[in-house]
Amino acid sequence: MDAMMPDSKALFFDRQEVRSAVEREAAIFHALPGLLRHALDNAPGMAAHLEGVEPDQVTSRSALSALPALDLDALLVLQAAEPPFGGLVATPIGRLARVLAGSRGQLVPEGARVDYWRFARAFFAAGVRRADLVWNALPHHLGALAAMAETGARALSCTVVPAGPGIDPPRMDAIRQMRPSVFVGDVPTLEALLDELGQAQPFRCALLVGDVPDPAFLVAASAIHAVETFYVYATEEIGLIAYETNAHEGLVVDESVIVELIAPGGDAPVADGDEGRIVVTAFNPDFPLVRLHTGDRARAILGESPCGRTNLRITPPSGAATAGGKG
Fold it and tell me: What is the pTM of this model?
């Protein structure tokens, strides 16, 4: 499910973004049995969780919905019982590029693939290109999200400033000297920077990770500071799940995950337009998480995005587990 890096003049990150729904579903459920078999053969914790599952029979959304889900608390319990990864990682630790830490103390493996967490797709949709200088204001000390954002920006050949959060004098001096064009971080940090910098702020666009921004802040960022904002929905275990495009009509689901919106108290999909719990399966051979409950909720948005991307769109998530401090 990996993608080639796009040409800087392309309208879309890759062809996957504009394929038909029928083609996308066929490709996803052709690949899913292989992911499940890989997890069963190489991740003993996931094999125990999926005991009795026959991968070759999981070729549809209804078959996927019959598999047991894994919640975030269970992941933490497994990691505590069998450190470091609870048997959920299919790659020996010596073959990983980095081990990151989540905000709840969970450990997250990162392999050596380019754009490992797929953030480049979100950057590209926000208009970020090779010449941009990216101010990465996410926490860096063992921080999973900061690493995820950096790998995405670097995949587009952007230069990254690993700034971390804060508005102390050294950071302000660095911004004024370097004039980065792209911000990535949470709303409080961006708001503080814009208040401090005023009309001298250099950012053209901002990718916001964490709690969903207040609409009033987005209006002010655009009207007063001329910063176009793009919300990115990611978690510390999955990486990119969905992202905002220049259409600003919901979030487009990433091409390397399967998102299910399921009813409270069960595994049945919700009716169109109803709010459901977000369950994600990630096509990550190192960390093959199958049906992870994110702890968030969202609604599906019917129809294709005006930007031309054809994947499922969802509303910005609500709940207790959005990335950016709560997991």
Answer: 0.94
